[in-house]
Write a structure and sequence with these properties.
This protein is an alpha/beta fold. It folds into 2 domains: 239 residues; 66 residues, no CATH class. β4, α7 and β5 form a beta-alpha-beta unit. α1 runs antiparallel to α9. The protein is globular, with a radius of gyration of 21 Å.
Length: 345
């Protein structure tokens, strides 16, 4: 059984990916975590169609890594308009017996964080130009590039519907609200874990410094003002949405597995030069300045979207489902495949 953590993004996924899932593999509680070449092909699949040979390689890698955890928030697709297509692709990739892990957060906070994420990635647009009407989204759908979230149709954002989509095709779906992740109770669905190991993972999860924290109110204000100034000069920020054809090359070449041999230690001077180069590169990046410098050294206040941007009817509908997950007796929902009617397994 493969455990596939599909997202959602901005639900403490970084903490899970850095401090929980790798530790499960180290403890021998799962067979592996995010095998490099398997992940390479999943990332490539987000950008383009795989060749026949690449599809065969991916299928072989999935089969060889049964019992592993695959965690990649791109699998659910950030764009709700693509949720059905992404579900069907995940079914082909992982099979109906895979366990799907879905982590969610409060709808208002999630939609705000999604907007902050695209801004942090350099796709700097005003809120009113990101959250668009269903009519405008439908007209622009053909121009929305694969794997890119360039605008958001709130009408299609429905957490309950997303869960039902996966229950239609997969044997088991686990849904955890972000505030309940820290208890690590949901791990009982994947492995036999004792309380000592659970305590270690809880500490790991709850003490990770949030380097991927959303831009603060000040960071958002600075970023939007900077972009308006650049636009007035007829230029704009470089964005992850700016397609670089050379980037595809790095995903087509197999990644060499570790040989287990100790790596030769570099001299103190070479290590110092490397650190200086890394830090100079980081400080030239706007995102790093905002997330690490501004977020950390100036008072952190949460960013809030302007009034009237979010559809309150959509928020209210999703709040109902979110609260049902948050209030689940076990701290999460364990759901079986739908067989003509809703049922819990």
């Amino acid at each position: 059984m493969t455990i596939v953590h599909i997202g959602l993004g901005k639900t403490a996924t970084t903490a899970l990916q850095k401090r929980v899932f790798p530790e499960l593999a180290k403890l021998g509680l799962i067979t592996g975590y995010n095998p490099k070449n398997l992940m390479r092909l999943l990332y490539l699949k987000r950008l383009t169609e795989l060749t026949k040979a690449q599809k065969a390689e991916l299928a072989s890698l999935v089969k060889a890594n049964r019992g592993a955890i695959i965690s990649f928030e791109g699998l659910v697709d950030w764009n709700p308009a693509n949720w059905i297509r992404a579900r069907d692709e995940n079914l082909v990739t992982f099979g109906k017996d895979a366990t799907i892990l879905l982590t969610i957060r409060d709808p208002r906070g999630y939609l705000t964080a999604v907007y902050q994420q695209v801004v942090a990635e350099g796709h700097v647009v005003e809120p009113k130009d990101f959250f668009v009407s269903a009519e405008l989204a439908a007209q622009a759908a053909a121009a929305n590039r694969r794997g890119m979230l360039e605008f958001f149709d709130q009408q299609q954002f429905d957490l309950a519907a997303l869960v039902s989509l996966y229950r239609e095709k997969f044997a088991k779906v686990i849904v955890v609200a972000m505030p309940k992740l820290g208890s690590m109770k949901f791990l009982d669905e994947f492995c036999q874990i004792d309380e000592a190991a659970r305590s270690l993972l809880k500490t790991n999860f709850n003490t990770l410094e949030p380097n991927n924290r959303s831009f603060s109110r000040t960071a958002m204000r600075l970023t939007l003002r900077r972009e308006r100034f650049l636009n007035s000069l007829g230029i704009r920020s470089q964005s992850t949405h700016d397609f670089n054809v050379r980037a595809l090359e790095s995903f087509t070449k197999p990644i060499a597995e570790s040989t287990g041999k100790p790596v030769a230690r570099k001299s103190a001077l070479k290590r110092l030069k490397r650190k200086v180069w890394v830090w100079s590169k980081r400080l030239r990046r706007w995102r790093y300045l905002m997330q690490v410098v501004v977020n950390r050294f100036l008072p952190y206040k949460k960013y809030e979207l302007p009034a009237g941007v979010l559809n309150e009817t959509v928020i209210a509908k999703n709040d109902v489902f979110y609260k049902s997950v948050l209030e689940a007796p076990e701290g999460y929902l364990r759901l079986g495949r739908l067989n003509g009617r809703n049922r819990k397994s």
